[in-house]
User: Fold these one by one.
Assistant:
Number 1:
Amino acid sequence: MIAKLRELLGYRELIESLVVRDLKVRYKNSILGFLWSLVNPLLLMTVFTVVFTIMLPNVSIPKFPVFVLCALLPWNFFHTSVIGATNSIVQNGHLIKKVYFPREVLPIATVLSNLANFMLALPVLFLFIIIFRVPLTIWLLYLPLVMAVQLAFTIGIALILATVNVFYRDTGVIMEVLMQAWFFLTPVFYPVDILPEWRTLWGIALPIRRLTYILNPMASIIASYRSVLYGFTDGSPPAPPALDFFSRTIVTSLVFLVVGYVIFTRYSPRFGEEV
Amino acid sequence: MAIITVANVSKCFHLRPDRPRSFQELLVNSFKKRSRHIPEQEFWALRDVSFTVEPEETLGIIGPNGSGKSTCLKLLARIIQPTSGTIQVSGRVSALLELGAGFHPELTGRENLFLYGSVLGLKRQEMVRRFDEVVAFAELERFIDIPVKFYSSGMYVRLAFAAAINVNPDVLLVDEVLAVGDQSFQAKCFERIQELKARGVTIVFVSHSLDVVRSLCSRTLWLESGQLCEDGLTEAVVAHYVQHVHDKEEALARREAERTSQPDKGKPEKRVGIEGAELQQTGDTAFARASIPAREGEPALSPAAGKQAESPADPLAPYRKRWGTLEAEIVHVRFLDKEGRERLLLTTGEPMTVVIEYIAHRRIEAPAFGVAFHRSDGLHMHGTNTALAKFDIPFIEGHGEVRYSTDFLPLLEGTYYLSVAIHDTAEQQTYDYQDFYYKFGVRLGPVSQRFGTLYIPARWEHVPDPGKRVGEAEG
């Protein structure tokens, strides 16, 4: 395992090149290039703002565009990474079949290029933060840590799905649907406080809000982003995520990363014959 | 200390036709009855293969299709894993398994080169250092900054080869890739491989081109059905392999000849000329016809070509003709090799005998026997007859054989057709002329001559100072 990790480290230039390739291809064909990648989150932000401040005015969340954008951008990063990484092995079959390199390079590079994309979009978020006069606090220093946690979780999921897709080729299609469901189940465009603490379904009392956090690591991650970038829906300024809550998120993400890596390296020797 | 160690390696591919390839299939299958379960099949691409390669050695791997050559190379390149056994390769391995791998159509040649370099494990500075050289090698200086999607296929392949061969590996694995580009580019690639070899790069080379293996590799492995048949000096292994292949081809040609010889029965009636009618009255014909079926039982080529007129694989079938009075008939033709064994495949530069069996239905004075060789494209290679050779046959009557022998078959590799004839010395009267009747193959064997149409046995001499003679060589 240590040897494998060291080998992976030796291939960081390859990861770098693949990330650069990804970004170049993505932005090459249009002059507006990178601006196009902002269209999607900005459009969604506008739609949600219109829906929740004009069409449904009784849900009153201050500075709604910032509220939704600071969750939408991380979610987009997650979404594009997962979908991209799921296909990364199969799509690069021509490489897998002809050259040896640690196979995990491919999904990792996909995730990293989406991370780069995410970071390129951050200035726009800060622009909105400034426009809407959301206070910039010292807790912003948490941002890289939150991003690292999300990165670990995303790579873990990416490694698992990339592996599954080699053996079951419709994983990508299924994930498109599941990701949509996941998006709605994650408090991206609605605040988690809107959820009831308890809800009784078929006679069973369910702690809905707790379950959302426990079953959905993305909910915790998004909540952390919101906590350090936006603050809270009652108008209070940004604050660090609660320690116990955040450390649970870190542990969960690391577990996903390790499990994903183990699964991936267990099956990757067979990729050469399966793709 | 060996640079490559392969110990008892086996590779089994599991062929599972009914393994679900998607969740959809998985779901559908779980509802279906397990009635038509197709059992898993195993295919052993390699079985218990062991060998080592020393540093700076150039190893060739030869064998027929499906013998496990490419599997072996893929295992060495770590693209697939062995089912059992161990493989150790030390140093940087560059594998030329297929060209163009990893090229992205949207990126320029320059960007792709850097990407490809890093896929092959080359450091960026190293790539920068070698960049101009690689581009010059690919002859793409003018086009290096346009996206490769605009490249012609030739440009694409040149770039790929240049990229792959210039990564400065410790071990180079090459799978049948020298057949790219035009002649001069091929020569350049070949030269480059020679250069790497001279620089001490360990090379494992898989090829169907025995000439290339001969000129590059000092040692050669011969794989057959996944098993190591022979491991030794290239000359010996290649010679044994060639012998083996030719034995197999010979057996195949015989089987084919046997299959096609059936319908010769009754043909003489169709073929006879004007005189045929009266010929059939004679008692001798009955004897002649009786003798032909007797031959067909044999595993011989006999009127080998009997039904070749209908075989689509035979482009010269329309030329196949027979005419003559049939007062004397050629009933059988055999080719013998240097050991006097009957063969359908002969070897360039070796002795050959053509045995022409005839029946003369009456006494014929001063006949002449002729032979003519045509190449498969119809080119008349050679023709002669006993009269021209001043070889007198006073008369023929009944059964007999005429033999045409050479100590040195000058035909090069290919398929040839033999025409045989009996006529009178003045070539006025044709008794039996069988044009393009007997097909045979020639293989190169141990000689290295392979250009043109003929092997002219000759000698080279080099006289730098015409006063004294130095450096004679057979050629």
Number 2:
Amino acid sequence: MGVPASQAWTVASYVLKQRVMRRERYPLVLMLEPLLRCNLACAGCGKIQYPAHILKHHLTVEQCLDAVEECGAPIVSIPGGEPLLYPYIGELVEKLVERKKYIYLCTNALVLKEKLEQGVFKPSKYLSFSVHMDGLRHEHDQSVCRDGGYDLAIEGIREAVRQGFRVTTNTTLFDNAEPLRVREFFDAMMDLEVEGMMISPGYSYDKAPDQEHFLGRERTVSLFNEILSNKKPRWKFNQSPLFLKFLMGTQELECTPWGNPLYNMFGWQRPCYLLQEGYASTFKELMEETPWEEFGHASGNVNCANCMVHSGYEPTAVHATFASLKGLKDSAVATLTGKV
Amino acid sequence: MAEDASLQGWEPVIGPDTPMTKVVELAFAYRGDVSLDMVDGNTIVGYLFNYQTGRTAANDNPSAEVIRTDTGKRLRLPYDQIGAIRFTGRDMAEGQSLEAWQRRRSANARAAEARE
């Protein structure tokens, strides 16, 4: 099982509490971007193309913690930009651990080894480094547009594992992914003794430099079937088994756009992590004044037509797990047998 | 203008074909600074990061939000105080294609081979 029991219990009790309180919409993971600056310019990323004065700016630790309190989600994912470039990342993580938030620090790991050697972080069950790895050396370096990126990330992972940190990988797949190479890549990541892997199809950001290789729905299902059929027992995934079934086309899920709300220097992004249609000044305003019915696959919104990204569907999968006995049983069977 | 062409350098004249609402939406999607010529004669240069259509309970007046390039200060500017918006800053989303990186990579590899 990729997710530790204490984290699974925290999420389960949070979801059940929301259901008892009959909250129709609730967040599961806060996506907290303390800065937009990055030390890479990946071909599939549309999140960092801003003027220099915007890239120099970052949130204060206090602003980050206020957003965490306002949102209330049990999990805080820290993407960016590259969060290891945030000057107060150690302090922010420490304060989130104090608040017993489960943290996924999403990093390209180019400077992870250096930060670990400096003692910026302490191992904790609440902290996991979620390292962006888009494949084996050739595929990863191509994806991040930097030769040597793979080797630096591997060094960072090794050092984090050696120091006793939780480490997961986060992989975005595009239509040029070769299933056999992806399977080899999973083996390589498990050899590094990471806790689990996260996978998702890419989303076609309209500002991403590479617009040719994003996946449509049919191709996504076909690709993930090729990759995950006959899944090796040693592969561990740090995500809901129902989401993996969804990627393989054997589970119906609808998007939960409010499930992973995003906060950054501009405010609370409407409507979701991927679409950028403006910002609300408070989390309450985001939840209450966003026309949610206009988003998600079923809405017919063209921007949502091909999206199967984890930020929208993983919250649905988690909700589905606890919404019925069947969901719980399917998840339990998939978790215990390793089959999806 | 092609759908995916950069708006860098564009100086639209506000009118029936290009209303302020449309220009603000385009400025919001633009990944560069813009110059806002205000009706009081001032010009504000900054990154237009948000807009409110005035249809929500929280905001009943259409307005654009800008982070000034010189001071980093945030301003909320009602549409009726904006005379024009010019796309004066560099479009940061342009010219960084995967193909461009592949060309640079190939050129670097050829240069390295030549040195050996």
Number 3:
Amino acid sequence: MNFGGHSLCRDGDREKRFGGRVCPGGKTLGVIAALLLISATSPAFAKGDSVPDWVQDAAAQKLPTYPPETNAVVLLDQRTYTVDAEGRAVKHVRRVVKILRPQGRDEGVIHVDYDKDMKILSMNVWSIAPDGHEYAMKDKDFTDEGFGSGDLVFADDRFRVAHAPGSDPGGVIAYEYERRERPYMNEVTWDFQGELPHLNQSFTLELPAGYTFNTVWAHHAEGAPIDLENRRWRWEMNNMPAVDLEHVPLSPSPASLAGRMTVHYGPSGLGTASTWQSIGQWYAPLIKDRMEAAPDLAAKAQQLTAGKTDFYDKAEAIGEFVQKHVRYFAIEMGIGGYQPHSAEDVFHHLYGDCKDKATLTGAMLSAVGIHAELMMVDSERGVVDPAAPSLVGNHMIAAIEVPSGYESSRLHSIVTIRGKRYLIFDPTSELTPFGQLEHDLQGGYGILMDGADTQAVLLPVLDPALNTIRRTAIFKLASDGVLSGTVSEKRFGDVSEYRREIFAAGDAKEQRDLIDHALQHDFTTFNATDVKAANADSLNQDFTLSYGITADNYARSMGALLMVRPRVLGSLAPDTDHKARTVPIDLGETMQATDEYSIELPAGYAVDEVPDPVKLDVGFAEYESTTDVKGNTLHYKRSYTIRQVTVPANRYADVQKLASAITADEQSRAVLKRQ
Amino acid sequence: MKRSVHRLFLVSFSALVLVSTGLRARAQWTPPTEEELKMTAQPEVPGAAAVYLFREEITDDQLHVWTKYARIKVLTERGKDYANIELHQYDAGDNGGYSVSDIQGRTIHPDGTIIPFTGKPYQKVIEKSQGYKETAKVFTLPDVEVGSIIEFRYSLRYDDNMYIPPDWFVQSELYTRKAHYLWKPTDKQLVSKGEHGEELTSGIAWAPILPEGYTVKPQHMADGQQLFELTVHDIKPTPDEEFMPPFKSLTYRVMFYYATYRSTDEYWKSEGKKWAKDADKFIGPNGKVKEAVAALVAPTDTEEQKLRKIYAAVMKLDNSSYSRAQSAQEEKAQGFGPAKSTDDIWTRKRGDDDEIAELFVAMARAAGMKGYVMAVTNRDRDVFVPNYMSFSQLNDLIAIVTVGGKEQYFDPGMRYCPYGHLAWKHSDANGLRQTDGGSALAQTPDEPYTNSRTQRVADLKMDDHGEVTGTVRMTWTGAPALSWRTRYLLGDQTGLQRDLHDSVENLLPAGMDIETGAITNLDDYEQPLSAVFQVKGAVGSPTGKRLLVPADIFVANEKPTFPHDKRETPIFFNYANIVQDATRYTFPASLTLESSPAKDEELYQGFAAYKLDPAATPTSITTQRRFELGTIFYKTDEYPNLRNFYKKFETKDQEPAVLKVATASATPAGE
């Protein structure tokens, strides 16, 4: 599926759809309307290479002071979205960017995207080099480029690309284009905040008689339009700061903070409501009949669930079939960015994208009497805003209706909508156990696509006990500092994903590299032997890795002292910095880690010191460790629990405190003294 | 090397248009064996995602067609990705092109069930511009599962007036059980169109890099058709290890040519002479360069003084390899056309790295010295292969100037490279140089380890709680200095400050607060580059009564260089160098030094050396560490000893200094 985008749109356009792109649309523009439009908006071309006055005016502005790491500033961004009487839209864009640093040179590469349902009606590019020379590019200077090469997606997205002259610090890049939008859309999103600060920007809506519109705003207070008369409205959003999280640890998705406005439009009374219900009604025809269970597909569903009577068992059998046996391979053309292929086609080829896999899951479940709906989400938490209904999202999963009264301890990823319970399942996430939800989606919003009953729902944050690391090890320390012993590491949930991937599908070298690179964090010299992995493919069981290890010079002999680090393996401290925090803290995932190590001490040594116990509970997370000596054995035990996926910025001091405590504990030493 | 590259572009001499019949019979599939259907792994590559059971490439010049065929056994989930296929084709108008056709494919399940590919490939645009269109045919084979055998074949059809000899890349990312390559070259007389006009080809040549026991032998069929054929078995995947030599150009392969020369010596001699002549034509020197040099140097200057002034002058030019190449439109707007000589480079005060190297040689000549350019294969990516008769393997130009009767090597195209030195990627590298009246294959000198030095000094004052405040000063010369200055060139000082901050943060114990201070000699490339940082934070591991601090704070986060006990390929470091550290902790009366690491020295066969030398006073401890890497290449069988050497000193590096809490009021941080 081609739902939405992960990064902020550089030019303020949101063109991604379910599975990689986003939105706008319209219908075929009539010839007369097109001529009028071009006449009304055509730029004031000067002769030769001189740039238009609006570019000169934008370039002449005095700039505010920006942080030194600001690559460029958008001096002007004007968007005019004109809908004709047939509902077909044309977008006209003017944009002027000033490059401030060498790192901003990329702003001189202009991409205007389109697909088979869109058409670039005109495109002009100008620039003013730092030496003041003005340039105008010609059509022959532009290239067309495809979606990309070497990925798993076939999409008909294309880009008209221009490399503007003068793209150096101090240079000004300007372009203007008109594009006929997709005919099937009735919403447009204006991303007025992005990676660059915006000095002046506006969005103008022009509607034909009989049309109405509605707006919703995400991550920003609603702005009132200026009525320009003649069914024209303009929103202005000037001096908008950038969302720059490049050097912010534990940062949320930039798109979850960036302000955007979505406009819904249409003939009075039709399709203008900015509600989830209207989104669902727009989407319903696209999925109608796509989830039908054809006979061969139904037969397979029956075969998979033969002998099973329990709801969960049946749903799990089908879910895992789609999860494991349907390859991710996306083919998206035109509306195929939103519309899934039929379940029958997906079943026949055994490949598809996220919406194809979710659709097949629903179809197969229906064949065994289980109802399911599609659910739109975004793979970056916080992008889907329940208060801003739109098609902004980049992923599709399945919501499986749980029979009334059914209870099971295996139901974890559950939401309740209008009294019905749904088990949320992502068949594209191949390593997430059925019944759970990958951590990227937890705590975000999903949109249950159910026609007029469509609605947003907060996805659950799962119990930390479902995402665990449990390391245990028994070691023996020799008087020359050599540590030897056996280690067992059990992982369950998302924290097991990478290891499952490597041990289920990676080759011997990758497996060796994984172990060696993990151990080199804790040992300067080591030798791992007898490595065994179990349950790499069994997602509902602990992935278990066990091995023997010998580490020379683990304990450091300093005169009569022998220094031993009781925390032998594993690093858990979150990454923090010393700067003031202004954005929410994304802790990634709820999880629980426990380590238990015992070290038999060498004869002739007595324990002189052990680290003090640590106990720190900051609410959203808790850390506890103890080091004891029993007989001639040193016992180290710790646990770390993360209970929330996001916390507000004002809790950053607690995160720093947590990081500091864990780091100190991980480096603490026990001191042995020769007797 | 952007100019003076001879293109091996072949055109039908007779202008005969050959047309494919288009009636070729559909090729037969290979029936799978029972063993192939049942296999679950290839013992030589445990855990491999997939293996080539068979691959074949047949090139038929008469038909202007390459036919490619692959049989792949899918062994893991990841191996399913090999069922997704993207085949590129392009059309460059009169400059040729090729198209993909005759795509066939099928999937065979482990039980022998055959699922043919019946779909139509999708065609997507990769790039389209005036006179050029690149597209790709994309398809995926149906119903692929772990254990499946996937098969596909297709043809690449070239324009009728082109003959392109094949390159057989025998080694790939997958293990290959068997592969077959066949080329049926044309017997027509061809001409090669290069920068020096058209030349008749005199035969076929090839550069093989093959496992022992394999050779390519030409054969002749009864009808006179010449054939080149190679069948190989059990080819290991391309190696992939850390600290590996630049193997990119040394994987198993056979590169063919319609040659205009009978031997590689003849090729390099003759083509090299043309290249050298072309280079001289660009270099000159001509009037403007001569004028500039006359204004720049004094008649009384020694040759070295002259050359230093010239070097400093070209170093000030805008090196567009580190900024941005100007478009033709920009050049025109500034009153410039295409650069035809070094006069043009000097006039516009701008050029790419090669043009600036050529300008330097021109100016040296104008000052009365002998100067040459040398085209080298950059050591960071490839190895020069003399048997491969292609200028495409040569990357950058460096300069050779005779100063005081002795040839010296210079790297003026590498902005900020000091006078008389080479960037490491250009040192100890092979290539082709100009000589008096011609050219010769040559090797550049290496840069001794004493030329590249990193000095790291920490002066830290510790409080009663074990927290330190102080300064860290980093100083770089040679290769590391050039690396930082290049980062600065590609960005700006703000970006460099960020990068330096991050690099120091990675070196020091976690959680320290670091502020980047003054950066010295950033533009003065003849001087060491240095940067100062203010640091603050906890450095040690507390035990209650003691505080363990890293004796050398710069190796606190050091990871083992060679964690793996096995090695398949030789070991290769970028450059020889010295790293010198000094860490001084001054501690309060509440802390006393209980112990510190013993002095230590390690030597690896005269190729590398390590020394740790702590010294203490009642209120301080200073640890000096020196590491010297004198040799950059080590054979595979040297790995165990080299690894032991690294293990020894990296273990020593982790020995802490132990401070004892002397008073009750003192509490180490973290408690």
